């Protein structure tokens, strides 16, 4: 039989990115958390963590974390059916990975009513849409929003729609870098703004215009900061249309190549055995996300 105190220690160390913060969350000493991890490793006969900064789960550790995520959700279903098992009546906490642009645009509107009606607290992990699925694979989250349609083993995926991005810059930037007009070659020579090292959206956009290879760029791992840098004339960038309708209407940002957006399909991934709460959230997102995202094949 599993000792869930040991599994909870493993989950806390990974979710809190270290032993010290895990100890604070669990109300234990750091030494006690370390001893629980060692006991778990002794029972399974192999390491469950790679002792790095932050600690990362091994293959067996990921399997155990996946199990913990699903057990937590199934326990909630059982508490609904047998109220006497609910010891504290605390709201359920869902740990979800999603991309920063979704968080900055459509996500809150899509899930606000659901969280209020179901007494759900969100523990959000922000990842680029191209790599968010790694959090599920590692067993760190119960669900994620990402750009990959293929679910990990034991999970399902649902197409939500697509985020439409437009290549934008400030009027001053355009006057400085494109005095004779915007061309793909000139675009590749001008400074760009990229969200982070995993963000390949600008690369794909330029490749679609026939421009291959690297280009100079700023790195800005903040969705709001990305827009501010673009407004400030530091570079051009691909920005969600949902996020800058006001700036476009006021002329603070200008589209570089008219009517040449790029759409990024988004998928909702959740554990197949994640219980009724995840199933209900999935059904809710299927309805609400479609109200703001564009159809993936538009």
Description:
This protein is an alpha/beta fold and 298 residues long. It has a domain at 163-263: Periplasmic binding protein-like II (D-Maltodextrin-Binding Protein, domain 2), CATH 3.40.190.10. 44% of the residues lie in helices and 20% in strands. It contains 13 helices and 11 strands. The chain has helices at residues 4-15, 19-26, 30-44, 59-81, 100-104, 107-118, 133-137, 171-177, 184-189, 201-208, 223-231, 245-250, 275-288; strands spanning 49-50, 56-57, 92-98, 120-126, 143-146, 155-169, 192-194, 217-219, 237-240, 254-255, 262-271. Strands 3, 4, 5, 6, 9, 10 and 11 form a 7-stranded mixed β-sheet that branches. A hairpin with a 5-residue loop joins strand 1 and strand 2. Helix 6 packs antiparallel against helix 13 (275-288). The longest helix has 23 residues, at 59-81. The radius of gyration is 22 Å and the shape is elongated. The mean pLDDT is 89.
- Using the coordinates shown, work out and report the CATH topology of one domain: D-Maltodextrin-Binding Protein, domain 2
- General shape: elongated
Q: Helical proportion?
A: 40-55%
CATH architect. name of one domain: 3-Layer(aba) Sandwich
* CATH classification, class level of one domain: Alpha Beta
Q: How would you sum up the major sheet?
A: 7 strands, mixed
Report mean pLDDT, rounded to a whole number.
89
Structural class, by secondary structure, is alpha/beta
Give the N-terminus to C-terminus distance in angstroms. Answer: 51 Å
Order of secondary-structure elements: HHHEEHEHHEHEEHHEHEHEHEEH
